[in-house]
Automatic annotation (TrEMBL):
Main location: membrane
Location in or out of the cell: Cell membrane; Membrane
Membrane topology listed for this record: Peripheral membrane protein
Record protein name field: Dihydroorotate dehydrogenase (quinone)
Gene: pyrD
Species of provenance: Chitinophaga nivalis
Catalytic activity: (S)-dihydroorotate + a quinone = orotate + a quinol
Cofactor binding note of this UniProt entry: Binds 1 FMN per subunit.
Keyword tags: Cell membrane, Flavoprotein, FMN, Membrane, Oxidoreductase, Pyrimidine biosynthesis
Reported function: Catalyzes the conversion of dihydroorotate to orotate with quinone as electron acceptor.
Amino acid sequence: MYNLIKKILFRYSPESIHHSVMRGMKIIHSLPLGKNLLQACCGVKNQQLEREVFGLRFCNPVGLAAGFDKDAKYIDELASLGFGFVEIGTVTPLPQPGNDLPRLFRLPADKALINRMGFNNEGAAAAAKRLQFRKSNIIVGGNIGKNKVTPNEEALSDYEKCFHALYEAVDYFVVNVSSPNTPNLRALQEKEPLKQLLHHLQLLNAQKLKPKPILLKIAPDLTNEQLDDIIEIVQETKLAGIVATNTTISREGLVTDAQTIQEIGAGGLSGLPVKQKATEVIRYIHTHSKGSIPIIAVGGIFTAEDAQEKLDAGAALVQVYTGFIYEGPTIVKKICKGLR
């Protein structure tokens, strides 16, 4: 059924149809019995799927990655689709429009997306305010970044502002220094600036009555030497875990013709082409940290087998994004059924 619907949806631009579909889902959710209908079709209830990771209890291990619900507009609706947790963002201190349109592209032959969104969002304060009114008790993570106009030398201040704005509204934080769509952002993954940033956030966190788990989201394009640095820094700063991985700047092995890829231009590639690399990064971190770092896996997860591959590599939880677009609203139910 969804394959037929997908053919219709894919006739429209990815970004416009995303907003249209989610607004429609919000309307359905608000109708009498609408929520019950969504839960009956897509919901997941099984205590065997529950996980406790970095001090939080997840009803199931399948979450929604950052980028889909940037501004926390659809938390209750996504909870009804069975997600065990939702990561909002990336949010920045100030609202920003992101990069010019078009900035989101489908590669159906590769089951992939290319995006150069550029952290388009309404700002941390707006997301925090919206989260105050959510009705579901689903776990929510806050993915935080810096504004495009903020130079790297002042990035620490932007992350601090996001941390304070979202602290009361989210259950955990993810520090995003790995998006390829904000100029020079990935330079913050280098050892010294990253260590300084994470130390500072953990200092702020320690001053809170109840510190929140802070995780780091990394790129799939890091060398083993860089991954060794990441492991060292995460252990030194006592971070709660790692989200692996973000999108890749690589275009290797794509089925889509080279001219189309060239016409699309810059952006992060997600979906099936990232699957193997993400798994390799997860396995490397898990092995070289001797399993001491909890990992949320994201990258090329479409089926229960894909999720199990990530869990076998050392992940504690998984997230979907591109798989959600290509497989439809029952993806969580199908993955959880397979894992069960």
